[in-house]
Amino acid sequence: MEQEQHTRAPQFSQEALAKTEEIFNRYPPEHREAALMPILHLAQREFGGWLAPETIDYVADFMNLAPIRVYEVASFYTMYNLKRVGTYHIQVCTNISCWLCNSDAIVKTLERKLGIGLGQTTADQRFTLVAVECLGACVNAPMLQINDDYHENLTPEKVVGIIDQLP
The whole model's pTM is what? Predict the structure, then answer.
């Protein structure tokens, strides 16, 4: 007989709950919904770097919002991950400034180095590689973001060095 596997419903840690109060206090009580984006960001950090459906439902319940409102925001913005990402989430800007400064070579270098294509994660779950439209550092193009760290003025050689230095 097969046993059903139940996943434990997510719950914010005490530290995260304190942070939610800080976030809510930034907004007037009648505009509590405005806290949704930072609360989603907090949830993504708290629950493994991505927003599983259970997490989105938890945030909806936590904020007393219809789940569809939370899904709309989470699915619209690329800063929210709706599937698991590797330990190192590599986002390469491929918008006009970075593209003109050869972001294609950065992408190709990373694909070769990591053995994966855009939108994929390495078998060991260390790296996820994605292209993004803009990371807002056009003056220092081409650039990429690894987790919360920006790397600018890139060359293929610099990118290899950055990856090689990751623990």
Answer: 0.81
